Structure formats: C-alpha cells, structure tokens
Amino acid sequence: MLRITTPPIGIVLLASALLAPGAAAADWSDLLRNGLDDWTVLGDGIWRLRSDGVLTAYRAPDKKLFAGRETITAEDYKLWNIRQSWLYTKREFEEFDLRLEYWVRSPGNSGISIRDPSQAAWGVSDPPDFRKTPSKLGYEIQINSEWSDKWGSGSIYGLAQAKEGLHRVGEWNGINIESRQDAIRVYVNGVLAAEHPGDPRRPTRGPIGLQLHDQHSVVMFRNIWILER
Of 1, 163, 176, 186, which is most buried by a Cβ count within 10 Å? Predict the structure, then answer.
C-alpha cells in the first residue's frame, strides 16, 4: 500500500507557521502511518483506507431493518437512521495540535471527538443515548455540510458556534484543532472558527475519534497529523 510518509508541502508550511518556537515540522506524527492498526472501529460503519491515503467511511445497505416486515414505524426508522459509527485511536492524547482534511457528502454531518473517555459507546449503541455522546462527555468538533443544524463546521458542539461561511461545500476542507488544558481552538481552512476554555467537569485527555454520523452520510479524511505538546 502506498503511504505518504511526510506531510504535503502545504501542511508543512502551515504547521511551521503556527508552531511554537523550537518545534519542528518533523515532530508531527501521521496517525495513519500504520494504516488502521492504531485505530478501533465502533459501530456498523465501513471504514477503509485507500491506497492513495484517503480514509473513507460509509454504510452498507441494511436489509435487516425491513426483513419480514411490510411496514415500520417512524420511530423505528429514526432510531435506525441516527445510529452512529466512530473510528477511535487506541492511544490517548492530552495537549496537542491536530490537523486534517475532510470531505463530506452534502447534505451531510460528521465530527471529530477529543477527550472522550467513553469512545462513543452510547452513540453506537442500539438505541443510541444522546445524553452521553462524545459531545456531552468529551468534546466534538462539528463537521457540517448543509445539514439542518445550527452548529456549523468548526463548532465545538454544544459550547461554541463556528463563524459562518468557512466550510466549502463539495470540496476538501482543512481543520486544525488546538487542545490545551485551558482552551480548545478550532480553525477551518486557516480561519479561527471557534474557541472555548473547556468545561472543568470534563476530561483533559482522551482518544481522538472520527464520526460517521448516520446511515446516509458519507465522509472522507486525509492527512491526519498530530503534534503532541
């Protein structure tokens, strides 16, 4: 499998410009350098790493929901449709910069979880419990492409809404997350989208997760790099 072993020049230049004095671009680690060996798939999503380094996530057709049934209730359909899938790192991280690119089918929804000790256990359960999803127990950085939700791409879901107009529909977008003990900052396509001091009741460390939001969303990620502080 062909893998990119160093960040593309644009990522290197951006990272170098934003690093603290003394930090080198070489200190960045590729979270996909070992394929998906360093990650755990949660839920029924299909997560595949292509030979060009693009990580894809989607759902296979679900025939079980309709098997032997002429009709289903609206509630049954809703609970099936909104059941999530996540891909989580096996390692936990505390203070770091995370940079990646994403593409999401429009309308579509996804997200990036940080500091979530549950590893989305209640988001992938059947039925899901949205009182205990990553945005409630840790933090979720929203990805939103024309989805009917007030939390736009770059929002710290439930805590800080992103500036409007930063996400480019139908294109690859860049997102940078700064996780510090006293702050979380999110940049979309190089522009500060949202920031929050963090909730003192929530953890300051945890794994990193990527979300497949529902049965109909399709999402792709690439160039997933982290710099631990």
Answer: 186
Q: What is the pTM of this model?
A: 0.84
Spatial neighbors of 172 by CB under 8 A, at least 6 apart, are 101, 102, 103, 222
Residue 151 is part of a domain; what is its CATH number? Answer: 2.60.120.560
Evaluate whether residue 12 is within a structural domain: no
Count: domains in the chain: 1
Contact 187, 98 (CB under 8 A): no
Residue 21 lies in a domain: no
Please give the chain's pLDDT, 229 residues, in tens: 444 444 543 444 444 444 443 445 569 999 999 999 999 999 999 999 999 999 999 998 776 666 777 788 888 888 778 889 999 999 999 999 999 999 999 999 999 999 999 999 998 988 889 899 999 999 999 999 999 999 999 999 999 999 999 999 999 999 999 999 999 999 999 999 999 999 999 999 999 999 999 888 899 999 999 999 9
Q: Calculate the alpha carbon distances from 212 to 128, 139, 165, 221, 228 in Å.
A: 14, 16, 23, 11, 25
Domain span including residue 79: 31-223
Q: How far lies 175's CA from each of 32, 58, 66, 172, in Å?
A: 16, 21, 38, 10
Tokens of 19: 């690093």
Would you call the peptide bond into 107 cis, given omega within 30 degrees of 0 as the criterion?
yes
